[in-house]
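Morning!

This is the sequence you dropped in the shared folder:
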Amino acid sequence: MIDPVALAQALIRRPSITPADQGALGVLQAALEPLGFACQPLRFSAPGTPDVDNLYARWGQAGPNFCFAGHTDVVPVGDPQGWTVDPFGAEIIDGQLYGRGATDMKSAIAAFAAAAERFLAERGASFQGSISLLITGDEEGPAINGTDKVLKWLKEKGETLSACVVGEPTNPLRLGEMMKIGRRGSLTARITVLGMQGHVGYPHLADNPVPRLITILHALRTRRLDLGNAHFEPSNLEITTVDVGNPANNVIPAQARAVLNIRYNTEQNSAGLKAWIEGCCALGGAEVEVTFEDGAMPFLTQPGRFVAAMAEAVAEGTGRQPELSTTGGTSDARFIQAYCPVVEFGLVGQTMHKVDERAAVADIRALADVYLGMLRRYFA
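The structure's back. Tokens below.
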């Protein structure tokens, strides 16, 4: 039987810093194929972005198709000297598995495989349905050649997903505390106010863009976007940088720039937020350029039979009733939600992306139990 901890160690020992795979997907494929999974490696490309390796593995041909989704790519380790251990050594110390990806999210992928093996051993030839794994190497990167393109490839092949669980680390402090049933949207705006450079002693010969930018940012910051709703906290706007690129104290700059990001709930939409920002930019009374980047749209998997069954599996496997949450950043669930109902449940996220990233060995084994319970309930 697959040991989820040993498989997690094997995956961590592949230094798959995004977008390099370094054989991580091959390790997973080697574990799945003896179980009868048909594995399809997929490499996607796009101009100006690195090629990315992905893997779609499926056991069975009949529906429904229950999918586990995740990513083997990891963020850089930072300063290796700051780590207690080799970031890719996958050492176990005092019951904790150390290594980049231990929490986010190679251990969850190993738990996927272990749960699938145990479920297939239970159900055997009588099982009518399919289990699939959709694993990308492009979640921590630009997310262009990863999950989104795998889903489009599946659609072109006539392959459908019936339900999906993403293994992102969802728990704040203890395994079982939180399951994600949605995510907020993300919109970035880049604002540039154009002026005229000049000497501060002769302001009438220049046009200072800084006060105009301050007027715009004040208008943006003083509006309360909404109060949230039953499933989402209030939308929030954060100014992330303001810059004029001016090293001199006696020169009025020619331009002033700011970047802001809005994390918004289902009370808002991208088009409405863009129109509002453009209206605020007009208050500057000067030439203003604004560009937008849509990072994600908000979504919610409505609580119902599927969500309830997944939450029951979490409660049974951990002894805790999970909070149904939509907090946090974005994940690849933003792509999957357009194809099937999706929830997210994984390990405790306290150390993800940090030095000495680690996961409790007991939690990894319990996570495999939870995923097994999810399969049992879905295919009951």
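Headline: The mean pLDDT is 96.

More detail when I'm at my desk.
O.
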